[in-house]
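A quick aside before the break. I want you to see a complete sequence-to-structure record at least once, exactly as it would be stored in a machine-readable document. Don't worry about memorizing anything.
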Amino acid sequence: MTVAPYLVGLALAGRRVVVVGGGTVAQRRVAGLVAAGADVELIAPEVTPAVEGMAVAGELRWTARRWTPGDLAGAWYALACTDDPEVNAAVCAEAEQRQVFCVRADHAPGGSAVTPAVGHHDGLTVGVLAGRRPRRSAAVRTAIVEALAAGLADAVDEGAEPVRPGVALVGGGPGDPELITVRGRRLLARADVVVADRLGPRDLLDGLAESVEVIDASKIPYGRAMQQEKINELLIEHARAGKFVVRLKGGDPYVFGRGFEEVLACAEAGVPVTVVPGVTSAFAVPALVDVPVSHRGVAHEIVVVSGHAAPGDPRSLVDWDALARLRGTLVLMMAVERLGAFADALLAGGRDPESPVVIVQDGSTRIERAVRATLATVAEVARAEEVSPPAVVVIGPVAGLVDHPVTSRAT
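That is the input. The structure line, written in tokens, reads:
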């Protein structure tokens, strides 16, 4: 009869932990030990670059030699992670003699402890053991943490302090609901009020509790300037009413998202506000159609430009002549309406008319599409293809590296 191990949490802060071995298995384990505050000594003649970097940074001590008997003196916990079964067995034997719990990476039954698949969410630590089936334990762990993050599982401690009123400015990413950050999704699940942008990940709103008030910021009346003032007022009003408000924005709130205006408004009103960065569409959307905004030997610079104002507009802060002289990548945001004017300005400044261009419309969504052209033809092609916002425009050699998807996508 197989006896299931006893799952327990170890308080390792400040306590000696010995890791024997410096390969990829040890690399995976030491990060969690360091995060737990353990006093980690790693013993191995050679280590991976990542482990060496942690040693150089002072996060752990690296003893650059093979394990010798006596190395576990004073240890509270040990891990045998070498690629030599005899060494691992000897480490576990010493641990048994010293009454130190020890994990044996190459043969779990040979140790006195087993490492669970561990995940974290909002102060919770989830550990899963699946009878020496690590893929299953990792899959179950991930499913639990994702359910907690999405609010699909109850993570509420009835005796805990309620969420503080205030505002969280959350970058939702380019549109695919899976591209929001873990922290962003966790805060969204705790919201009382959500003020959402048109370009935010709309599918996430369907999963909110019925009690959550959702305000569509794109439907707020008045002109553009007044609309922003009204949004600021709504954030402050609901927070002052004792609500936890999530301002859900597309992309990253600080990349042409007026996020800092909202932070300043909340700060001036004395409303607590936190910022959760998001995956910016400027880089993520091109990547989804196999356009890297940088590539070794092709582009050493990336400039992201707002298309809010046309060249020559007194409000414009862009030096189009300087941009035209650059050889790297230009990423234009909110540029569809004035695409012809931007192309003309770059051509007039000396940019090569044959510069490849990719326009990605509705990136990361179900209706995503990519349109390819050159700088000389992009305005005409965009009109012919009836390109409409939201779209990201990439200009430069990287846009011509491929003209079709490189590979099929993994799930």
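Two observations worth writing down. The radius of gyration is 27 Å. The CA atoms of residues 208 and 295 lie 40 Å apart. We'll return to this after the break.
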